Amino acid sequence: MVRRSRGQSTRSIYLGLACISLSLHLLLAIFCFSVLQSACVLPTVHDQKWNGSISEATEEAKKLLGVEKLMKKEKGRSKLEELFQHPLYNLPRPELQEDDWLLRLKTDAEAEDSVGEDEDEENSITNDSEDKETHPPWLQFQLGISRWELYDRNNPNLAQLTHYLATNRILGAVQKTGGTQLKLLLSFPNYGQALLKPMRQSRDAETDVNLFYFSDFERHNAEIAAFHLDRLLGFNRIPPVVGRLVNITTEIRDITADRKLSRTFFTSPAGNTCFYGQCEYYCSTENPVCGRPHVLEVSLAAMLPDLTLAPRRSWRSPWRRSYSRTKLAQWEKDPAYCDTVKQTPPYNSGTRLVDLVDMAVLDFLMSNMDRHHYETFEKFGNETFLLHLDNGRAFGRHSQDEPSILAPLTQCCRIRRSTLLRLRLLSLPEFRLSDVVRESLDLDPLGAVAPLLSEPHLSALDRRLAAVLRAVQTCQEKHTDVIYDDLKKHGDHWPD
Length: 496
Ligand SMILES: Nc1ncnc2c1ncn2[C@@H]1O[C@H](COP(=O)(O)OP(=O)(O)OP(=O)(O)O)[C@@H](O)[C@H]1O
Ligand SMILES: [Mn+2]
Prior knowledge:
Layout: H1 2-36, H2 54-74, H3 79-85, H4 108-113, H5 129-134, H6 137-143, H7 157-167, E1 172-175, E2 184-187, E3 193-198, H8 220-232, E4 241-247, H9 248-253, H10 259-262, E5 266-267, E6 273-275, E7 289-290, E8 295-302, E9 312-316, H11 330-333, H12 337-343, H13 352-366, E10 373-377, H14 407-412, E11 415-416, H15 417-426, H16 433-442, H17 455-478, E12 483-484
Parallel strand pairs: 11-12
Antiparallel strand pairs: 1-2, 2-3, 3-8, 4-8, 5-6, 6-7, 9-10
The structure holds adenosine-5'-triphosphate and manganese (II) ion.
Manganese (II) ion binds next to loops.
């Protein structure tokens, strides 16, 4: 009797489990067919007849929870997509006049006139729309640079550009001069180029506390993450950067025409291909860049137009750190330092001061202490955005914040309203900065190798964002003119 009822209850457990397994199957199948559409292989465990234990069933359920999360994300409940749909990320773009574009295309007539003249390729590009669509992605990117931003986030060319850099055959690799650390200039078919920074230390290695920030290795993942963060802040002031796995033997050593570079290649005792190049810092046998055994993670940044076509001006940051081991910079000693800056051109008019504050917010969030200079396009004079180039020393430390990076904000107590409102948005649970950064970085090809920013770095972003908002709050308690209202022209419905 007892045995029979036990038999019955075992059967009903089996039946229950079979039902669970069946419905889980069904869910997964719906997910595969409706969401992924592309190849989706069911895990083999689902193909077997269920005969597992309760704990296995729980494991299955857990796995499915993960799947459900993914389903929500795939169905458009992505925080990233929702963020980019918010009005603050879709402000009407100012109508651009001809001189608001960095590069001007020749009209067909002008191009015809110049036939026979000895002009280089780029100068004979025409305005013809058909022509424009057939331009390679790197050229479309350069043609899209305007007075106010490097790119339009919604332009489909951006994805084409990163795909182009991440997948095209590397035709050439030479060392890039300028700056202090090793970097290469790669060339691709159709005359495209990219600035390569190699992975030099494990992603999670925190900067040694006894190392000056200017001594730290540059990080390839910092270059990639900085591009994503800048875009998420709505700035669009960093050239697109994408990660890639490169075979340094076949894709660099074997094809480079740079003799100085190729002479520094060697095989390490572990059998890995390594090189060190020639530069000021860390270009020595003691600091080699090595593949495993050939493969290396790198960051590739889209190139700005050549300086002969679009000259840039380099500005020393008023809040530049002292690059001395013993001296402090003026801004570190004088609490009223900003009063002087505010009276000094170009910071005494236009948006330059709030542009510096934007840059300081970006740098504080990613803990970049190395912003000694910034650049602008000469063509646009002082009425233009600031280029946030060179972010290789960001994301060096997650366990500590560096409040001094925020000095332009805390000393000047000025910030753009649009920046502040976006920062507030990113501090809400539905758009949480760490979540949208994680999601955005997952789109990079190297995201599949390992997360580009570890969880401690992501939570540091949320912690630092809260610190920025507190700093603004403190300013507002003491001053009345903290907000630079750049949204007035877009209506009066914005919160204070
Ligand atoms: N995407 C780009 N397109 C064109 N030029 C670039 C790009 N990124 C950087 N540069 C130029 O190359 C120079 C060197 O790059 P970068 O600053 O990243 O090197 P670095 O070795 O980190 O320099 P530093 O040691 O001064 O920090 C920059 O000053 C900038 O003018
Ligand atoms: Mn640098």
